[in-house]
UniProtKB/TrEMBL annotation:
Residues 1-16 have a biased composition (Low complexity). It comes from the Bacteria. It comes from Streptomyces thermodiastaticus. This is Urea transport system permease protein. Pfam families: BPD_transp_2. Its main location: membrane. The keyword Membrane applies. CDD domains: TM_PBP1_LivM_like. InterPro entries: ABC_transp_permease (IPR001851), ABC_transptr_urea_perm_UrtC (IPR017778), LivM-like (IPR043428). It is found in: Cell membrane. Keywords: Cell membrane, Membrane, Transmembrane, Transmembrane helix. Residues 1-20 are annotated as: Disordered. It is a multi-pass membrane protein.
Amino acid sequence: MTTTTSPAGTTATEPPVTEPPAPFLERFRVPGAFLIGAVLLLGIAPLALSDFRLNLLAKYLCYAVVAVGVSLAWGRGGLLVLGQGVFFGLGGYAMAMHLKLADAAVTGQTLPDFMQLYGAGDALPWWWKPFASPAFALAMTVLLPMAVAAVLGFFVFRRRVKGAYFAILSQALAAAFAVWLVGQQATTGGTNGLTDIQGFFGYDLDDPVNQRMVYFVVAAVLLLLMAAARQLFVSRYGELLVAVRDSEERVRFLGYNPANVKLVAYVVAAGMAGLAGALFVPAVGIISPALTGIVPSIGFVIGAAVGGRASLLGAVLGAVAVAWTQSTLSDAYPAAWTYLQGLLFVVAVGFLPGGLASLVTVLRRKRRTTDDPVTGGAA
């Protein structure tokens, strides 16, 4: 309330100035988008797609879960995370180890089938034993990738490593992890990885009904993580993360530690990648070093870059589109697909940094510039 004095000396009280309410469509734009996504993924897709296509979509949605983390770390934080395959693999192997132990228990075996084939001995390795517990395995699918990211990120960000150097370190980690997996044939399956997974917490994965259940789990997790990431984007932390990306020194001058801000984004993105790997195992039935090295790590980033790394929806749609394109074109052109994948990344980063999500904005800006008489366009 404000008080004013009239020329006659009397006082009058003016009502407070209030901002006009947000338009109806603007207030319900985000909830409406999530509702549409839920209807498409949980309602229409299971009815419209065959079991085979639905299983493929579940695989693509696992990549989309990784893209949510990439959008947070790279799109908001400017961290070019080229080692997400490591965290994807850690979550995937944690889940696959439990499922292989569960399959062995059903048949009365003490060792998984591949250990018997490769001559691993008569005793289960000590670091396999805790994964017989479903609760421990589920926790490790997220906590183990986050712990590795926390240790790595602590030393990297504390030393103020960023830009291309951070990307190279991420790739080196992915390459080293894949090489280690290949070398441990008796305990990790080597090049083949952990394959022929039959069950998922007591459910037979050969049953199409159970496969559909896995799809619903993957789709629901994706929607929940998108909602959580959206809240992070609009929170105070999200604003601080963008500030660190744009001007790290100014944020440090204001009293914040940019290393801690980047570390949180890196660890959260790693946890999402680990959860995606855990979901990938029952959806596809396999986890191998080929899914954890440099090439898949780059593929995760390409999907987010093509769709629009700064846009949560763009990153998710880009990941699904690139994965679908890879499945379609890699069979027809196996030798050329790698070059096409690299070309997509170069075009997205060099000519359309905001990805396809920013295409409408770019066209509007170009049209506005053309129509502006000050810039020499048509009046």
